[in-house]
Amino acid sequence: MKDMTTDTAIIQVRNLTRDFDVGGKGRGKRVLRAVNDVSFDVAQGETLGVVGESGSGKSTIGRMLVGLLPATSGRIDLFGETITGDGGRRALSRVRHKLQFVFQDPHAAMNPRMRVSDVIAEPIDVRGGWSRKDRMDRVHELLETVGLARQFADRYPHEFSGGQRQRIVIARALALDPSFVVCDEAVAALDVSMQAQVINLLMDLQDKMGLSYLFIAHDLAVVRAVSTRIAVLYAGEIVEIAPKRALYEVPKHPYTKALLEAIPRPEAGVRQPPIRGEVPSLLNRPPGCTLCPRCPRAFDRCRVEAPKLREIEPGRSVACHLYED
Amino acid sequence: MLDVQNLSVDFRVDSGWIRSVSDVSFALPANSTLGIVGESGSGKSVTALSILRLHAARTTRMSGKIMFDGNDLLAMPERRLRDLRGRDIAMIFQDPMHSLNPVLTIGDQIGETLRIHQGLSATEARNRAVELLDMVRIPDAKSRVTEFPHRLSGGMRQRVMIAMAIACRPRLLIADEPTTALDVTVQAQILELLRELRQEIGMSVILISHDLGLVAEFSERVIVMYAGELVEDAPARTVFDTPQHPYSEGLLRAIPSPDEDVSRLYAIPGRIPDPGNRPPGCNFAPRCALAEPACHAAPPPLEAFAPGHFIRCPVRMKTTEPAE
Amino acid sequence: MTDQTAIQSPSTMTTTAPPPMPSRSRVLIRKLWRHRSFRLGAGIVLVIVVLALLAPFITDGSPNKMSLRDRFTPPSAEHPFGTDNFGRDIFTRVLYGARISLWIGFASAMLAAAGGAIVGMASAWFRRLDGIIMRIMDALLAFPAILLAIGINAALGPQVTSVIIALASAYVPRMARIVRAAALVIRELDYVDAARVSGAGATRIIFRHILPNCMAPLLVSVTFVFAYAILAEAALSFLGIGPPPPHPSWGNIIAEGRDYSVEAWWIMLFPGLAISLAALGTNLLGDGLRDVLDPRLKMEQ
CB-based contact (8 Å) between B266 and chain C? Predict the structure, then answer.
């Protein structure tokens, strides 16, 4: 493995793009660009929150980062290995044990015919080379780490509540001591009180094990609770990326503002009228800025020219013509 | 207008009957908003479905009274209830895709309600459908009326559902998690729409949600349910600012705030008891920091903490003075 | 050890064990047992199987023993189902016939299931082959099963094994479709992705995650194919291309009795009844299995 002493970024994503074929053949082939020219880094021990609505491409990015989906173009470096392009598959297999994924729906994330111990030990079994006893000890240790009793090892997934299942899924993700975990809406399916328990667990694990997370969510409050930095996605593009405090206190991009204003705040009394319209169809992207048809501050230039993501203050980048020059 | 008295609902399961909703009472005056909050398994949706008696009759047992304009909906013959449904009381659900028929155009579906309840002709119904789509702010309603549901986004479908629900100008609209499946910005639009329509038509709305913030922002009054019971019933601002029941308090504290940084979230320990396996005393006692021995022994009653503010917590009743 | 306490705190939260639940299989068995038609069907099938197994003890053990003196005896105390043109006891032959007919039904259903699982899984896994495989299956499906069986059987020659192979190949396409449909759904589920993230290869994903979860619909259709196969065996025998004659399969007994259907109706009646009963029993059993196992019809919770 290459030495990474010069940079703390363990994940580097550059110009990542992903297209999906949506029918048609030959010249009539229709392509949906779900992720368009996305670049970001994730540092050791950091949580990058990724927020966006459906169709923003946030899950697609998460899946590409762990090799569940190939990239159409662009480059992903994980721990100094380039998992995209030629030789990407082999590079991926070298870093695979450091990557894990936590799914949104804890009901679908476990094979109903496997015992909890086999679910949790799956990464161990795939990698191989563990004795029976070490394997079982590890399963018990993991159950305790996520706050479940070791007797649960012999049970089946259907016996558990949503919050407990999500703990089991997290235990599985931790089996091989990963360094980087993608959490795709990991708490969205849980009730409020369970959600707080699972978020606290994820944060405790980060403190203890130095994990880095890519935390994908639509709920801005949840993202604020867990993240170090936040990337706001709209229609497959990053429109703003900034440290969380700056982003929430002084949102720059009109879409970031709209998202923050959409959160119900009973204490605020009168609320701003919500942003109009919905995410456009990615099949016919508007020629200029993708937010343009909905943006209250759009002007002529926005309709013809797509804004580029550029750094406007240290650590903060925005893709909006309002912040150019 | 609506007065629910001691409503209990039991469901048949393999091993007998289990109590889903237990002794719930609340009232809703005309032209007002009520929010029902609770986590999954709290009985909030079951309560709402009971108002329209939408549970399968063979596997459900209901007791108590649901008075609507002085008539008990639970005692009403099915035929009279059917007249009421959709005309006086309408309902919208979480998932607008599964509530729309994929082979009918949205115009036909809206028209259907009108033709059933108001005996409109096909053309009249079509025209009225266009008006309704306009009312729910669907742009270009005239051409949209011939679209099929799959051509619309989630937010648009929910607007269509709302158009169907308000077609007969109901006096009560029950909205069961109407925005949960929608994106954040669309959620705000739908709530805004419901708020405006309520003014225009002058109907009452019951909003059911797991999101206390959303409910508190929308409603005048909020009831909090836990494990099938009503645990707190108060004006929305009171529940949001000074909740008294330890569960409401915990629920509120557990929601992460978008406006401040915290290193750790407050989490209510434990989890909601299974309906078949509820504790003998207060349902919340096993998770409650305030619980006293008496709480584990017998179920506490719902008591008036302050005028218009009811809680099911004897500990808070005796230890806390209502704020001025 | 501050981080120690931080990790400890969640563990105190949900260690409360959920009430022990009965295992999945026990729940299924209980549900099946409560299902009326499953109970009836299972009872019928069980009785037939037991009678077939006990045939040597119930009868004199020689289904082919001829007795020219006793030709065409109508049902009586000595010959409850009567005798045929060679004086063979029909009751004995029907019981022994059950062994062959049930074996043919069982073996061809199993073989069809295995073949269907392989073809269906290949089709669902190798998406490039899917088109070709499924078109071939469609072509086979469009061909009447019985005609296909006749063709294969004619090619392989008259033996019990060739009947089994013929019937199995006729039913492979249905099984393949069922497995393919289930596998296509399951391969998109999160737990398959979870296995992929952990680096699991095709073998593990197919045999540990996808196939076991396709078993329910497959098992249901095995019962139906079992019933079809018993009926098809009878049809083949009737056409003279079933198991070769000395074997007393139900179809054979009927086929041999057809020349005497007017004067010795019992020769055809009793094996015919046995066939109907066996088909009815397996169908009822299959209905029950489908109601309990097939997730699309699952209504509980």
Answer: no
Judge: A147–C191 Cβ closer than 8 Å, yes or no: no
Number of CB atoms found within 10 A of residue A141's CB: 13
Euclidean distance between CA atoms B160 and B149, whole angstroms: 9
Identify which of B253, B176, B234, B257 has the alpha carbon closest to the alpha carbon of residue B209. B176
Q: Note whether C16 contacts B267, CB cutoff 8 Å.
A: no
| Segment A244-279, tens digit of pLDDT | 999 999 999 999 999 998 888 877 766 677 888 888
Please compute the mean of the pLDDT values over residues C276-280 and round it to a whole number.
Answer: 92
- What domains does chain B contain, in order, with CATH numbers? 2-88+168-319 (3.40.50.300), 100-167 (no CATH)
- In this prediction, residue C22 has a pLDDT band, given cuts at 50, 70 and 90, of low
Determine phi and psi for B38, rounding to 5 degrees.
175, 165
Inter-chain Cβ pairs, chain A and chain C, closer than 8 A: 110
Q: Are B19 and B8 in contact (CB under 8 A)?
A: yes
For chain B, which ranges sit under pLDDT 70?
322-324
For residues A109-123, one letter each, b for 16 or more C-beta atoms within 10 angstroms of the residue's C-beta and e for the rest, the string is bbbeebbbbbbbbbb
| Residue A6: pLDDT over 80 | no
- C153 closest CA partner among C240, C251, C246: C240
Share of chain C above pLDDT 70, in %: 89
Is residue B267 within 8 Å of C11, Cβ to Cβ? no
Closest residue of chain B to A264, computed from CA coordinates: B214
Interface of A with C in 74-113 (CB under 8 A): 93, 96-97, 99-101, 103-105, 108-113
- CB–CB contact C14 B274 (8 Å): no
Strands in A73-78's sheet, in edge-to-edge order, are A31-43, A9-21, A73-78, A81-82
Q: What is the DSSP letter of A72?
A: S
Give the whole-angstrom CA distance, residue C268 versus residue C98. Answer: 15
User: With an 8 Å Cβ cutoff, are C14 and B267 in contact?
Assistant: no
Please judge whether C16 and B271 are an interchain contact, meaning their C-beta atoms are less than 8 angstroms apart: yes
Identify the pLDDT of residue C178: 92
Distance from CA of A269 to the nearest CA of B (A): 8
A204/C3 CB distance under 8 A: yes
B181, closest residue in chain A (CA to CA) = A54
At A7 the pLDDT is 53
The class level of CATH for C100-294 reads mainly alpha
CA distance A208 to A213: 13
Burial level of A25, CB count in 10 A (0-12/13-18/19+)?
exposed
Which A residues in the span 262-291 are in contact with B, Cβ-Cβ below 8 Å? 262-267, 271, 273-276, 278-279
Minimum-distance CB partner of A265 among B183, B217, B263: B217
Domain boundaries, chain C: 100-294
Question: In chain A, which residues have their Cβ closer than 8 Å to the Cβ of C195?
Answer: 122, 126
Q: What is the ipTM of this complex?
A: 0.86
Q: Which residues contact B32 (CB under 8 A, 6 or more apart)?
A: B204, B220, B221
Whether C262 has its CB under 8 Å from any CB of chain A: the answer is: no
Give the global pTM. Answer: 0.85
Q: What is the 3-state secondary structure (H, E, C) of B197-224?
A: HHHHHHCEEEEEECCHHHHHHHCCEEEE
The neighbour count for residue B85, using CB atoms within 10 Å, is 18
From residue C276, alpha-carbon distances to A301, C42, C45, C248 in Å are 79, 15, 11, 17
Average pLDDT over residues A60-72: 95
Half-sphere exposure at residue A149, Cβ-oriented, CA atoms within 13 angstroms: 12
Q: Do C16 and B274 touch (CB under 8 A)?
A: no
pLDDT of residue A132: 94
Considering only alpha carbons, which residue of chain B is nearest residue C10?
B269
Q: Do B185 and A221 touch (CB under 8 A)?
A: no
* Helix, strand, coil distribution of chain C in percent, nearest 5: 75, 0, 25
